[in-house]
Write a structure and sequence with these properties.
Helices cover 52% and strands 12% of the residues. The chain has 638 residues and is α+β, with helices and mostly antiparallel strands. The chain folds into four domains: 3-59 and 483-637, no CATH class; 75-149, no CATH class; 174-286 and 364-447, no CATH class; 289-356, no CATH class. The chain has a four-stranded antiparallel β-sheet. Strands 5-8-11-7 form a four-stranded mixed β-sheet. The longest helix is centred in the last third of the chain and has 50 residues, at 536-585. The relative contact order is 0.18.
Length: 638
């Protein structure tokens, strides 16, 4: 039979059964159309993410590594350990002798009853045990720390990474935490005193905009994409910082736009914040423990004098302290009525406490000014004014540099004068080598090391190793979700393929029924063709052409439906998504938009192939059975 005649007859069958054909094409087309739309949207989103990822750190594979080993000593278990108890007794005895010797040296009365032993005799077992209420005793804690860290090996990121390849160490990234005292943010440029430290809204900030909890030095090569203030000069002594967008907006005294703001308004706001981040200058105050203690004493004295100065039982303190006249200034003495004998006694007691190790040392305070040099994206959801879509995209990119942290570019920080670098100003009051070692180890355990990899394969290998159960190293992506997004993309492709298998199976069942019914309804027609000389092959060719035309209609309908869904979704979210991506990176890139339309050629080919294959598979048995029927019997039955 002529191929053209075969096509004409196949088309005639489709016209004859319009309702059946329409339902088949509609149902199968919708199923495959949704799959096509999903594939197009995911491909487009992936392409847009890759385009935007050239900004910030999202195109780079960086891991933050930290020791997960937490050495510990179970005091409840060791409270009856004879060796542990013996060491506690020795430490207690040595400390008692030391205090007694120092007391005699400075003629300070010594009362042994003021230093009760932490070891006692259990009335039931008649054995030595640590008293439960003495677990915090200095001797007990000293021995416990010695046991905890006796065989402890500090985490060495460089040594750990030697087993891998294709990486570059990017230094430490952690908050500037003094061992003595604290470095605190000064809300509205004012230092919070002892009487208002619990006030979280001293500077009137919204609850959704959190003040910085710390300053962290970030490797210069990692900070570079965020730095926009080219006028910054390290010689000024101001600490350069990269500020999260919402915090920068607040410090520039700009009210949040709200979720109803247009995309253009949000874009203009971002551009303004980036352009004016260099105008932001705020203070941090460092006080060591001695300075903080004096400051608190001055506040308490002020309250005491105000409350009791007019009462008959009021006694003025021998030494009256005044709160600093300037923010983060030194606490001064405004009145000292001590006699020469009292001053001599106080000096002797100070020397006694210094040798004993209980003196806080000399007060040190210093105000540091930080200057904005760049803006980073908000962490965890895109800030208080982000819409649901913007929050999702912010989570996807995860382009922030740490929650509650202002990052300091390391290359600019190194150029600051020494007295403007907080970690060089911090004091260490500990003269006890054991205590100092414990503090050093504890701070070391909290240190995060950044490692950049040449490719995602090497980064993924390390991430898999450190996240497995039992690993002594903790790790997670830093500055981006590139690795996670890559995993999600690969996972989505697997889901698409499984969905295709399921939908393909459903399509086979639908088409099988439709084609089988069509063949059954055309038995008399097929018998007539056979009677006028058509062969079984000719009859099979007609139905084969019918199946191909049917699958072609399903393909066209699915492609059109998938395209319409994708275009409508793209038109709806492009502007919001573009602004969300710009806010996530806190950077405007002219001409770059976030679209969710992409052409996944391989996946589309697989989907089209699945449609055709499902149609052919569904038609094989009905066509073979129909071709093998006896035409005489079919004409008689009809």
């Amino acid at each position: 039979m002529n191929p053209l005649d075969v096509l004409v007859l196949a088309r005639t069958k489709m016209r004859t059964h319009k309702v059946r054909t329409g339902l088949t094409v509609g149902i199968a087309g919708i199923l495959f159309g949704v799959i096509i739309a999903a594939a197009v949207v995911v491909q487009g989103s992936t392409d847009s993410i890759n385009r935007f990822s050239r900004t910030g750190l999202s195109s780079r594979f960086i891991l933050a590594l930290q020791s997960s080993d937490i050495p510990g000593t179970d005091l409840y278990e060791n409270a009856q350990n004879s060796k542990f108890i013996a060491e506690v007794e020795t430490a207690y005895s040595d400390e008692l002798k030391r205090v007694k010797t120092i007391s005699a040296k400075y003629h300070v009365p010594f009362d042994a009853s003021a230093y009760p032993s932490p070891v006692t005799i259990d009335p039931d077992t008649r054995k030595k045990v640590i008293q439960p209420d003495k677990y915090d005793d200095a001797a007990v804690q000293q021995v416990a720390d010695e046991w905890r860290f006796a065989n402890f090996k500090p985490f060495d990121a460089n040594d750990f990474m030697k087993q891998y390849s294709g990486y570059t160490m990017r230094g430490k990234f952690g908050p500037m935490v003094p061992q003595d005292g604290a470095l605190n943010y000064m809300p509205a440029g004012k230092e919070q005193g002892a009487d208002n430290q619990s006030d979280q809204k001293t500077d009137g900030r919204p609850s959704s905009v959190q003040p910085p909890s710390s300053l962290s030095v970030l490797d210069g090569s990692l900070a570079k994409p965020y730095v926009t203030n080219t006028k910054y000069d390290p010689k000024s002594g101001e600490i350069p910082v990269i500020i999260p967008f919402s915090e920068a907006q607040y410090l520039l005294k700009l009210d949040p736009l709200g979720t109803k703001a247009t995309s253009q308004e949000q874009r203009d706001r971002l551009a303004y914040v980036i352009a004016h981040v260099g105008d932001i200058a705020v203070g941090f105050c460092y006080r060591n423990e001695a300075s903080t203690s004096l400051h608190e004493q001055a506040v308490q004295q002020r309250e005491y004098i105000k409350k009791y100065s007019k009462t008959k039982d009021y006694t003025k303190p021998d030494v009256v302290y005044s709160e600093p006249s300037q923010d983060c200034g030194a606490t001064t003495i405004v009145s000292d009525t001590r006699t020469a004998e009292q001053k001599k006694y106080d000096a002797n007691m100070k020397a006694y406490e210094q040798e004993l190790g209980t003196d806080l040392g000399e007060p040190v305070q210093r105000k540091f000014t930080v200057r904005g040099v760049g803006v980073s994206g908000d962490n965890f959801g895109g800030g208080p004014e982000a819409s649901g879509l913007q929050s999702m995209i912010s989570y996807a990119f995860n382009a922030g540099l740490g929650y509650g942290t202002w990052s300091v570019p390391g290359d600019l920080y190194a150029k600051l004068p020494a007295d403007s670098q907080p970690d060089r100003v911090f004091t260490d009051k500990s003269g006890n080598s054991k205590a100092s070692r414990v503090n050093t180890i504890m701070l070391h355990m909290q240190t995060t090391y950044l490692v950049e990899f040449d490719n995602k394969v090497d980064a993924k290998r390390v991430l898999d190793d450190v996240t497995r159960t039992g690993s002594h190293v903790w790790g997670m992506p830093f500055g981006s979700n590139a690795l996670m997004l890559d995993e999600l993309g690969a996972g989505f492709q697997k889901y698409i393929l499984w969905a295709l298998v399921f939908i393909g199976g459903v399509a086979v069942i639908i088409l099988w029924g439709v084609i089988g019914r069509t063949v059954a309804d055309s038995r008399r027609e097929s018998a007539v063709f056979r009677a006028i000389g058509a062969t079984r092959v000719d009859i099979s060719s007609i139905y084969g052409a019918y199946v191909l035309l049917l699958s072609l209609r399903v393909v066209v309908f699915a492609l059109v439906l998938g395209s319409v869904i994708s275009v409508m979704a793209d038109m709806y979210i492009t502007q919001q998504a573009t602004v969300a991506a710009q806010l996530a990176f806190a950077k405007i890139q002219p001409g770059l938009e976030f679209h969710i339309i992409g052409i996944p050629l391989l996946l589309l080919a697989i989907i089209i192939g699945t449609i055709v294959a499902a149609s052919i598979l569904a038609s094989i048995i009905p066509i073979l059975l129909g071709a093998r029927r006896n035409p005489i019997n079919d004409m008689r039955d009809e």
